[in-house]
Amino acid sequence: MNITKDLLTTTSGLYGDSFYLLDCDNFTESFKALTSEFQLYYPKSRIAYSYKTNYIPRLCKIVDSLGGYAETVSDMEVDVALAIGVNAGKIFFNGPYKKPKAIEDLLLKGGVVNADSAADLKIICSIAVSNPEDILRVGIRCNFDIDDGVVSRFGFDFNNGDFDDALTETLKYSNIELVGLHCHFASRGLQSWVNASKGMLDVIEAVERRNIKPLKYVSLGGGLYGKMPKKLQQQLGISPPSFGDYAAAAAKPFADFYKNHDEHETPELIIEPGTALAANSLKFVARVINIKTVGDKSIATLSGSSFNTNPTSGKINLPITIFHSDESEPMERYEDLDMAGYTCIESDYLYKNYSGPVSVGDFIVFDSAGSYSVVMKPPFIMPNVPILELNGDQTVRVIKRQETFEDVFCTYQMEF
Question: Is-contact 268 217, C-beta < 8 A?
């Protein structure tokens, strides 16, 4: 993505002092690279993109066009997938809370619902009884220890008998087709993927002993690092695994396990990345509104907020590039300057301890802002900013317009 001062000046004049710049080429490149690495070991590997991480329809449509699936955790996200033309059969419905009607609607359309709990399963079985002529495509979410120090609250415990009970209940209904198994663990570490792969293969062996129809898919969930700028690696104190490292940890064991199986009886291996694809696909642009000194501290107020970059990033400074807005004016150099947001929250800082030149009116471009930023931005103080796709000819296309007063308050009653 080639960003220039002239581009930012023109775009700001049209769309305001804050906006997102969407890099679809970067997203597509990451999607293809991750798919390729997994398919080197296990050719039937497929990506189901995590809508909750960033459900910009433009990105979701790219996933569909590249042969990927939709991984959703709410009826709203299912509706996004259907609205952009995703075939229901390519939608996976996960998550701990699913409305009964949403489960029924997707199952009857041919989508897949991964049961997370006995409550999910009860709803699914009721739908099976009410619709005896329809085949319901169902998966079971599995829970087992991957030795990451976290007790996961999701799925049926494989070791205490809950998973076996869920499997037995599912098999009671002739019109429920158990099409797959699912797991997801939050840890992005490579050893967690090794352990998750081993644990899921243990589950598969237990399922195969029941002599049921071959599984159509096995999903290992998400939780992968993507391409990460050096500055972020240094702050986090990590050297993140590559896509190839993850593939060797997860896809190779599946290839070894199924090497003597008939190809038609081997499942797809599904991974559900979000951050690994979305983080580098979005930049956030804000302008410096003022700079003040409080005590010995220099503080710049920006036209954006930390809610715009990543509400979950904590004290991480996203990599930034500064574009001086007025080259006829000299830039003052600051030491240990903090960049604050426009909100009235004391802790609202987008960047801390910056040292270098900066002036009022400058553009601050935050890199790697695509993970959870858009989807978790609240309508706090100001409506959200536009999302603009940057084209190769330095023009932009509106992907999401600037939100307005009406957008935020249209659901409220104003007359009493």
Answer: yes
The CA distances from residue 208 to 96, 109, 204, 259, in Å, are: 26, 28, 6, 15
Every domain of the chain and the residues it spans = 5-21+280-408, 24-279
CATH superfamily of 5-21+280-408: Lyase, Ornithine Decarboxylase; Chain A, domain 1 (2.40.37.10)
Can you read off the two tokens belonging to residue 234? 């240094």
The one-character DSSP state at 211 is: T
What is the value of pTM for the model shown? 0.95
Amino acid identity, position 127: I
Contact 173, 126 (CB under 8 A): no
Give the up-direction half-sphere exposure of residue 248: CA atoms within 13 A in the CB hemisphere: 7
pLDDT in tens, 306-360: 999 976 666 789 999 999 988 777 788 999 999 999 999 999 999 999 999 999 9
pLDDT at 314: 64
**Residue 304 confidence (pLDDT):** 96
pLDDT at res. 117: 97
For 384, the 3-state DSSP assignment is coil
φ, ψ at 110 (rounded to 5°): 105, 5
Q: Which fold has domain 24-279?
A: TIM Barrel (3.20.20)
